């Protein structure tokens, strides 16, 4: 059973833009999750807003998706 950890500070994000960037990079959600060290179901929950995206997850996504500071702000500070 997967449990969300709501005690960690979360990031408000634009899920549509994040999905677009994952697709543009040629990654699947499964591959992206693997690259940031979480399960596919956890990443889906974070993208869909069921669980909070942590600052650490956002930083890892910025790195692997090679987001500019502006792109990261548009996605994670929406």
Describe the protein in words.
The chain has five helices and two strands. The chain has helices spanning 15-24, 29-36, 40-48, 55-64, 69-76, and strands spanning 10-11, 53-54. Helix 2 crosses helix 3 (40-48). The longest helix is centred in the N-terminal third of the chain and has 10 residues, at 15-24. The radius of gyration is 11 Å and the shape is globular. The N and C termini lie far apart (30 Å). 21% of the residues are buried.
Walk across the major sheet and give the strand order: 1-2
Q: Give the termini distance in whole angstroms.
A: 30 Å
The number of helices is 5
Task: Report helical residue fraction.
Answer: 55-70%
What is the gyration radius calculated from CA atoms?
A: 11 Å
Shape: globular
Q: What's the number of extended β-strand segments?
A: 2
The largest sheet, given as strand count, sense and whether it forms a barrel, is:
2 strands, antiparallel
Oligomer: single chain
Query: Would you tell me the structural class of the helices and strands?
Result: mainly alpha
H and E order: EHHHEHH
Q: Which blocks of ≥5 consecutive residues have pLDDT under 50? A: none
Strand content: 5-15%
Question: Please, what is the average pLDDT?
Answer: 87
